[in-house]
Write a structure and sequence with these properties.
This protein is of the alpha+beta class. The chain has 6 helices and 8 strands, in the order H-E-E-E-H-E-E-E-E-H-E-H-H-H. Helix 3 links the parallel strand 7 and strand 8. Helix 3 runs parallel beside helix 4.
Length: 204
Amino acid sequence: MTSSPGTAPAAAPAAPERFGRGDRDHNRGRGPRRPNRDTRDDEPKDGLTEKVIFINRSSKVVKGGRRFSFSALVVVGDKQGRVGLGLGKGGEVSEAIKKGGENAKSRLANVSLSGSTIPHEVYSEYGGAKVLLRPASQGTGLICGKTVRAVIESVGIRDVLSKSLGSKNAANVAKATLAAILTLRTREQIMKTRGLEHRLAKAN
């Protein structure tokens, strides 16, 4: 289309304005982004660490179908010589874990340690499970299976050698491990039990 003489040419249509992603979000009235949820603190407030060793599911056949229930074996410890083991049952997994943790906290017991390891070799049996624990030099780490490790770490032991010699049932292995570490005694405790405190005074 040609313009008549003495008239200005028509202006070209303006290009549509482009916005970046942040500008679009700003124009839509969105506020600042929320902080990452993974940064929240999940550490226990009471100083106790809680670990789930085993979760079992059982079912019961009723008129309307199957009804499921769960049981959870939980170990609780402060990593400074106290540990407890508890079993919880419930209709949901979270409910079973919560009950198991509360049960374990009510059964906390003291364990005798020697630095980062155990004072002496110990052997224990529970049902078909058999657990052997031996002291290890500093820096060795935890040479043990996942079930024994869960109990040992909760106590605060960092160097130990272990061997599971019997059944692999997680509940029995955990209970055998707990029974083994509860029998540990330091040299000082044994001397006091035998009435030989004067020897300790001479040695010091």
